[in-house]
Amino acid sequence: MARQMKAWASAVASLALVWSILGAGPASAQDAWEAALGPFGGVVNSMCRTPDGSILAATASGLVYASKDDGQTWSMALRLAQPRAVSSVKAVAGRLYAGVNGAGVFESEDAGANWKQLDPLRLPTPAVTALIEYDGTLFVGTTGGVARLVVDAAGKRQWETLNGGLRNLNIREFVHTSKGALIAATNAGAFRFDSPRARWLASSNGLTKEGERDSFVLRSIVEHNDTLYVATPNVGVYRSADGGATWEPANAGLPSVNVLTLASGSDGVYCGLEADGVYRLADTSTSWTVVGSGMPNPYPYSLLSTASGMLAGTFGSGVFRFDGTSSQWGHSSGGMQNASVFALSGSGSQVLAGTSGGVYVSEDAGATWVLSNAGLGEVNTRSVGFVGSSTYVGTYRGGYYVSDDRGATWRVGSDTLKGTTVRDIVGAGNRVLFGVTGRGIVASVDSGATWEALQGSEDFPFVSSLAVIGSDIYVGTDGRGAFVSSDGGATWTPRLTGLASMAVYSFVSTDSGVYAGTYGGGVHKLQPDGTWVPQNAGLTDLRVRSVVTDGQSLYAATSNGGVFASRDAGASWTPMNDGLDDLNVRSLLVAGGYLLAATSRAGVARFALPKQ
Hints:
The chain is globular, with a radius of gyration of 26 Å. The two termini are 31 Å apart. The longest helix has 11 residues, at 2-12. It has two domains: 41-254, Methylamine Dehydrogenase, Chain H (7 Propeller); 341-608, YVTN repeat-like/Quinoprotein amine dehydrogenase (Methylamine Dehydrogenase, Chain H, 7 Propeller). By secondary structure, the chain is mainly beta. Strands 1-56-55-54 form a four-stranded antiparallel sheet, with no helix packed on it. The protein contains one helix and 56 strands.
């Protein structure tokens, strides 16, 4: 893994970004946060090619990235002030457009250097889902129908709603066919645009179950070699050889029928399957076959054919590339600082980051990162932890995974916790403890081979945080406050008095005492009599998700106020957000002389701490 880390760091250096000199630790403290080389990734909803040959990638966190090297590296092209999902990007008549969920359409007339928002109030709804050029005009699909951008008699551009004939107004995607037709995929089948009458005509014959009136929900539509293909969430792929007049299933070879997206390639049509990766229906075949092996993230939300192969934009891990030179998909997200990070855990200079797209590993205190999903069946992670000789990852509704080689590879955990969400992981003596949503706390003394519920923890089933402080186990819950056990979890004592919020997300212990971070109530300090006292002077955002210490100061991560520091045992707090790209911080970790911040849409940032 060390060799892989060096190779990756060398590759991303070509982005011509200026980074701090990396080493075992900081030479001195800094005054601002620095972005790490990763974790690169994020949710990629859509990709397109522009007239100058660049590729644009629309993400779910309000960012659009551009690549000028066929998707190998990326740089930011658009950053929305609010983290709204960018659903689609398109080049139309020399301009670039980005469709945004809840904010309408943004336009650039200078290849993405500058953007302006077009009036969203004239759209059927500002929740934009699809964009396309038709007859030299921009057509916009929304959750409330279709509009096109027209020029009125006074020369002013405005939106014209075109919903006549649509039986369902939730537009998922458009295709402009080789024969000049415009077809919309909706939540109730396909519709063809009748341009002279400015109306839509149903084009769903065959896209309905026998005996049912409503047509299938469609997610994607594409044309390949004069044949149309549509993707559905529960009946697979259908195709039409007559321009959409009739449809038939085309699922031979597919392992599942939950299809996320479609794309036309040079050698066939491609589809992305939920949890099963990418498949291709070759021009010379009648059956789908898997593309590559071991795709690190098998949730492809978007596909784009390029000169050097196929790009897959995924849920959480950014972009992967398959060029046919090997059987593996390569991570191709350099510069895409868009990962949504939920948890951090460290052991020495090694750090794990749990993201919506899997696990990233850093061997240099968060300076550089490598995606490490080998063996993960569910990549949407919520917790990570080093306990003894094992490393654990808890997922969202996918149970947990174990690594015996410090995160290089993973194996599925016990079926006892299959389908659960593991919110936190901590070691307690010879046991590993999991906080499991809906089940309270479970414990294992055999590295996860078997589990048992801790007695009494069913009284607080929604565990949000765990901590072992001395011989005591502290539990934070999402709505029931805090509990403490002094006998290894046999009995529990509520610690509720004084809490301004019963959502307790973090604990930390210092020489001054025990502190709790609460969502909505800020930071509290535990008193000798078992009550809590707020410690919030200067803390302008009381939605605290994480509290840590470096031995001298306290640090608090907040939901929208960034990171705060206290150098007087919590008596007062000051913000420390210079250079922090995302103020929605979910987790903090002190490692290798740095404070690491896990953000909701900008990966991990580092802050060099003063040497002690």
